[in-house]
Automatic annotation (TrEMBL):
<keyword id="KW-0067">ATP-binding</keyword>
<protein>
    <recommendedName>
        <fullName>Cytidylate kinase</fullName>
        <ecNumber>2.7.4.25</ecNumber>
    </recommendedName>
</protein>
<keyword id="KW-0057">Aromatic amino acid biosynthesis</keyword>
<dbReference type="GO" id="GO:0005524">
    <property type="term" value="F:ATP binding"/>
</dbReference>
<dbReference type="InterPro" id="IPR011994">
    <property type="entry name" value="Cytidylate_kinase_dom"/>
</dbReference>
<keyword id="KW-0413">Isomerase</keyword>
<comment type="similarity">
    <text>Belongs to the cytidylate kinase family. Type 1 subfamily.</text>
</comment>
<dbReference type="GO" id="GO:0008652">
    <property type="term" value="P:amino acid biosynthetic process"/>
</dbReference>
<keyword id="KW-0547">Nucleotide-binding</keyword>
<dbReference type="GO" id="GO:0006220">
    <property type="term" value="P:pyrimidine nucleotide metabolic process"/>
</dbReference>
<feature type="domain" description="Cytidylate kinase">
    <location>
        <begin position="117"/>
        <end position="330"/>
    </location>
</feature>
<dbReference type="Pfam" id="PF02224">
    <property type="entry name" value="Cytidylate_kin"/>
</dbReference>
<keyword id="KW-0028">Amino-acid biosynthesis</keyword>
<keyword id="KW-0418">Kinase</keyword>
<dbReference type="Pfam" id="PF07736">
    <property type="entry name" value="CM_1"/>
</dbReference>
<dbReference type="InterPro" id="IPR027417">
    <property type="entry name" value="P-loop_NTPase"/>
</dbReference>
<dbReference type="InterPro" id="IPR035959">
    <property type="entry name" value="RutC-like_sf"/>
</dbReference>
Length: 333
């Protein structure tokens, strides 16, 4: 069992304000922590003594939190404390609690301020491996943007779209019901109410995802969603244009790269290990072609942000890259 903290503020002591602020806080805590009626045990509230018009617990029930025990109490009256503040502690059977501090309460725990880490780089640079390790190390989320493009592809396949053109795909994507949820630190991809986290790994979806992700209408919509997620929670994102386009204000940006020779050797070893009979020279040629296409495509090309720290992984293994990045982040905070 874990304890999840949260807090928020209201601008005036009215039942409507309390209902609104408590509802918003609990819904974000539920989304970010993968809370369900089954894994939630209880919600404890405290309010500052300037709140007298309604119980925060009542607002929780009104927001749909019926199944667990609720309790309200009074926060100690400390001089200079933040006024009109409602604090929450949820006990739940989860692994990685993500605290949520909203509105004026965001300043209570400056150490918990949300931040994003952008890892960009060419394919084969090892950025996804390092992104996952980094998210685990910092106890923040790894936003698998690839899964989002795969979900778009699954949608198009389900709707029997034959050619992935802007005209055919745009209407589907415009109203797509795609939800990214986190359960015990793992991303679940929910499409039209169905958990498609496994389905999107099928080979036919991989092929379609690569084609569909090149469409501007798809990228635009997914980038909006990625920004929205990064606004709500700290996360690590990897890609080709995270630091330049998706999150240009990310405080930590890294450009993870390696020479095409080294990346080709890594890919060659990986394919050989899987039993594929490939030639090194062909793998190298493919990598170089892909680099060219990635950096020359019109929409979302691979670019290094001016303020990104370059990490050349030619002579480094994944653990060394992780240590280097963590050191750089610590130096900056
Ligand atoms: O986390 C909060 O809500 C705070 O205001 C911080 C803090 C603390 O100092 O740790 C202070 C008072 C609360 O009762 C609980 C925690």
């Amino acid at each position: 069992m874990k304890a999840i903290r949260g807090a928020t503020t209201i601008s005036a002591d009215t039942p409507a304000e309390i209902k609104d602020a408590v509802g918003e806080l609990l819904i974000q805590m539920r989304e970010q922590n993968g809370l369900t009626d089954e894994n939630m045990i209880c919600i404890l509230f405290s309010n500052t003594s300037d709140i007298k018009s309604a119980y925060p617990a009542k607002a929780a029930r009104e927001a749909g939190f019926y199944s667990c025990a609720l309790f309200s109490s009074l926060e100690p009256e400390i001089e200079g404390a933040l006024p009109l503040c409602i604090r929450v502690m949820i006990l739940a059977e989860i692994e990685n609690p993500v605290p949520v501090y909203l509105r004026g309460a965001a300043n209570l725990r400056k150490d918990l301020k949300k931040f994003a880490v952008a890892l960009d780089g060419p394919s084969g640079s090892g950025k996804s491996t390092v992104a996952k390790m980094l998210a685990r190390k910092l106890n923040i989320l790894y936003l698998d943007t690839g899964a989002m493009y795969r979900a778009c592809a699954l949608k198009a396949i389900g709707e029997k779209v034959e050619r992935f053109t802007e005209d055919a795909v745009a209407p589907l994507i415009e109203n797509i019901s795609l939800n990214i949820q986190y359960t015990d630190g793992a991303q679940r991809t929910i499409l039209d109410g169905e958990d498609v986290s496994e389905k999107i790994r099928r080979p036919e979806v991989s092929m379609a995802a690569s084609a569909i992700s090149a469409l501007p209408c798809v990228r635009k919509k997914m980038v909006e969603m990625q920004r929205e997620i990064a606004r709500k929670m700290s996360c690590v994102l990897d890609g080709r244009d995270i630091g330049t386009h998706v999150l240009p204000d990310a405080p930590f940006k890294f450009f993870v790269t390696a020479s095409s020779r080294v990346r080709a050797k890594r890919r060659y070893d990986e394919l050989r290990q899987k039993g594929y009979d490939v030639e090194y020279d062909n793998v190298l040629q493919e990598i170089e072609e892909r680099d060219y296409n990635d950096s020359h495509r019109a929409f979302s090309p691979l670019r290094q942000a001016e303020d990104a720290v370059v990490v050349n992984t030619d002579e480094m293994n994944a653990q060394e890259v992780l240590d280097f990045i963590v050191r750089k982040i610590q130096e900056k905070v």
